Amino acid sequence: MLYSKIEGEGKPFVIMHGFLGMSDNWKTLAGQYVEAGFQVHILDLRNHGRSFHSDEWSYEAMVQDVYEYCQANNLTRIDILGHSMGGKVAMLFATTHPELVDKLIVADIGPKFYKQHHQEILSGLNAVDFSVKPSRNDVEEIVSQYVSDFGTRQFLLKNLYWKEPGQLAFRFNLEAFNANLDAIGKPLPDNLVFDKPTLFIRGGNSGYVQDADIDSIRQHFPNLKLETIPNAGHWLHAENPKMFFELTTEFLKE
User: In the record, which residues are listed under signal peptide (predicted)?
Assistant: First the structure.
């Protein structure tokens, strides 16, 4: 069963992180959604955070995990939000289990195919040799040779934990990602449609969802509302959490 943090009372609202992320990335916003009257479930998807590791890693497998999570927690009508990879999971979940989903929010990702573009990040992560028992500073020094952006490094290094005294490790399953690298970019199958209220939010400085993509998004999600957060990149919920919260809660309460 997926690891989750459940807080609050009210309509169940399921939140899913992006690639190499975890539920902790959403802790602050989750607290705000609780105050807004939702029962918030922030998940660690398989091979991420505190959830189980598996050699199988695909969107279909992740959707099945979320379905089993809903069954185990008696969630029969939910609103769902996913960022990046989590947005792809949310899209596939909503289109294959529409009876469970009232409203869908997708943050800075589209249903289209995305070329592999995480090679530098994965090279940096794979360059860390935990057998020599590096310190946190050692790990950051190694990763910084591949990932120059400080914010991205801090996001990645949140995954470091003490597996045992003196022994650091990454929480995510790097071996599974290395073996299934193409899985992350796979498109939503052409024939899938979710016709209930759907909100796509993109970062104005992010290239993940472009104007040219809108028609194809609407084919899958005809009840589409699109919002743009200006001057925000791919991590739009972290760069402008106030506007992100306002847009999402306004949509959820419509």
Answer: none
